[in-house]
Inverse folding.
């Protein structure tokens, strides 16, 4: 069996200063899709809802963009997440790493 790694990036759509969405979700999805297309990164993306407690102790429920990526290094993923974080003015972004087992016949 060949092992591969899946990374999941979870990024809230609320700005960390005003606690609400300031970037249009449709534009963000198009921007992220274009970014991965230019870099030739295999990905899938979906929208979810999530709760987050800011360092200021303010808790919000917000829309979240969830991005799954397979076949890149942790360094590449960290760079992508940092770019997204800066663009979205996020306090933090969650990156989850999962080892996958694949069986090919």
């Amino acid at each position: 069996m060949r092992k591969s790694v899946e990374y999941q990036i979870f990024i809230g759509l609320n700005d960390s200063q005003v606690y609400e969405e300031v970037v249009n979700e449709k534009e963000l999805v198009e921007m992220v899709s274009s970014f991965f297309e230019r870099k030739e990164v295999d990905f899938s993306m979906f929208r979810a809802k999530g709760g987050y407690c800011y360092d200021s102790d303010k808790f919000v429920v917000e829309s979240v963009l969830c991005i799954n990526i397979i076949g890149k290094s942790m360094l590449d993923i960290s760079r992508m997440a940092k770019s997204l974080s800066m663009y979205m003015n996020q306090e933090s972004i969650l990156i989850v790493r999962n080892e996958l087992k694949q069986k090919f016949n």
